[in-house]
Amino acid sequence: MHIESIPMWTGSSNNYAYLVVDEKSKDAVIIDPANPPEVAPILKDQIDSGKINLTAIINTHHLRADGEQLSQFKGLSVIGGKDCEAVTRTPKHEETFKIGQDISVKALHTPCHTQDSICWLMEDGDDRVVFTGDTLFIGGCGRFFEGTAAEMHTALNKTLAALPDDTKVYPGHEYTKQNVKFLTTVLQTEPVKKLESFAENNKQTQGKFTIGDEKDPAVQEATGKTDAVDVMGKLREMKNNM
Length: 242
Prior knowledge:
Order of helices and strands: EEEHEHEEEEEEEHEHHH
Oligomer: single chain
Number of helices: 6
Mean pLDDT: 94
Helix content: 25-40%
Number of strands: 12
Low-confidence stretches: none
Distance between the termini: 39 Å
Shape: globular
Strand content: 25-35%
Structural class: alpha/beta
Largest sheet: 5 strands, mixed
Strand order of the largest sheet: 1-2-3-4-5
């Protein structure tokens, strides 16, 4: 499995699209190509040079450029949540399918940021990654635009936390530096210090941290709450008010 990160709107919303390629077959998918002018030239170059066979767009949730995506990449399947424009397939929770010969994909429904949010677990041999869109970032989570603290608690602490700890996280945005600024106000643990140092010295953090790295029960103490849903809601409120 080869993953190429494609930064979009760098310096503003700092989005990522991801090109995922099955190396044996060259079959490929593009995840969250929200800004076609930045993504299409890269895809065209690789298609024209015979490096990839682009088979589908996969979205983690409905995006602001869904319609424009389709004008750039005609004839492709659009795999994503029910609210994605022109979606052709919405896999059920934990439904699986293949990319090429070796990549196994599992849909993980994580409604909250949007109600159609789906994280995508991909495995190739011992290599496993999860594309989390706007649900989970490195050191943070998405806003509850269409959902509740209870839904985000389920998404993070049940659905994603159940993945193997060595699963690498590929989020939809590069928000790590600003997430660390908040984290350091509530935690001074060694993992937070490590993340702060890495973010200061690296512009990109996607794929460098794992599901295991995101687990730190000490964060609960900063909220003064004991119920897990209340902790989630309070943390989001504290981050919003920072």
